[in-house]
């Protein structure tokens, strides 16, 4: 059924979606679709903080330079500079809303709030709220959104696809309610803030990771996707096979944490002069190699030398969580393992969040702005959410009249797949991606992944044409096709760069590399 006409429709209730809603709501009415559970979405789980040039001892050029180095030659320098230069104003806006960032009480402090340092950064420029920055920011933004009369929050619907018209414009979103009934929400402007695609992998840093559903919804309307092969694995996820995923923040290494092998020896200084503070792709590969060399299923992150008082002060959430799982990190090193964390690729956008589909925007992890290149630098993600949500809002405040062309037909039917079969297919896909398309990829493994995923899609295809009444089945269909596009992008990049490491072509292949670009229509040729 048709569920009204909406002005600005935002899909996703993390930092990016909430910032956009608040910034545009004074000019236009906003409907924001978000999960019923606040535990879903990556924003709330962000620990480290937000990178921005805030100290007088820092400068824009230094932040730009660090980002370009981490991105390994594939960043769009215009996007990098735009993001960095907009950062301080975005932080001031958060402060004006009351985000409780951690103060720096030191009389020698150059900035009133504590700034930490993380991998890839040459200066202390990470503002944070203890070690639970994402939660503090989301809670503050949500309180303001709930109080705004022009923002309607909906947590009763799950988006499964976008509505398009014959002129190629986006005209809203198709959703399902808890009972499987379809609701078509028409909109003047639609914004994806749905998160990334780390859920394509078996082990992630988030309990409920997105599987790239927003990316594929955009691709179904013809949007261009970019840099899908660059999936970031966070170097340090708590290793606990019997418990849920839990991220150990980059800031732990920024404050002096040391990576140790099973023999208690440091291994990073011999591999990179920045040691534990090297960019994430380098640290994750080093940990993976050390695990392969020793045959162990994890390494250790040691902060005992900081002392219990400093650990409790800087990392109260991490200390408490590890204690709840039987580990006192002030007396024992933390077992850690790399896990899928952040998608550097996504829906290609401009500096205002506009995609290649008219009236469709994308912000946050679902988007590929050019900021991250081949590897995201720590704490640039929440910065990107802030900056691009605010720039997108400025654009949407001056939108042109919407298209009135006839709508394209949507899917129909009531086919379902048993929950156990859906779970089995997800596990099969994630097994392939984790084994063949993870931290290290090889030509033979990528070819095997392409074949196995194509066969899995072919097996499911007869049920998918009528998937309009099953949200889990729709999510699986989105994830499976995105996995195939990711493999195709990885096979096409005949070099190793940033997060994409292939020993069969280990060197940089092009002194002036280009981002990869792919559309859903390319899938049959993949």
Automatic annotation (TrEMBL):
MF annotations from Gene Ontology: L-aspartate oxidase activity
Location of the Fumarate reductase/succinate dehydrogenase flavoprotein-like C-terminal domain: 428-510
Annotated ranges, domain FAD-dependent oxidoreductase 2 FAD-binding: 7-382
Protein name according to UniProt: L-aspartate oxidase
Reactions performed catalytically: L-aspartate + O2 = iminosuccinate + H2O2
Keyword Oxidoreductase in annotation: yes
Pathway(s) the chain acts in: Cofactor biosynthesis; NAD(+) biosynthesis; iminoaspartate from L-aspartate (oxidase route): step 1/1
Keyword Transcription: no
Keyword set, alphabetical order: FAD, Flavoprotein, Oxidoreductase, Pyridine nucleotide biosynthesis
Pfam family, one: FAD_binding_2
Location(s), subcellular: Cytoplasm
Biological role stated in the UniProt entry: Catalyzes the oxidation of L-aspartate to iminoaspartate.
Annotated source species: Halomonas kalidii
Region of interest: Disordered: 495-526
UniProt record similarity statement: Belongs to the FAD-dependent oxidoreductase 2 family. NadB subfamily.
E.C. numbers: 1.4.3.16
SUPFAM superfamilies noted in UniProt: FAD/NAD(P)-binding domain, Succinate dehydrogenase/fumarate reductase flavoprotein C-terminal domain, Succinate dehydrogenase/fumarate reductase flavoprotein, catalytic domain
Gene that this polypeptide is encoded by: nadB
Cofactor(s) for this UniProt protein: FAD
UniProt superkingdom: Bacteria
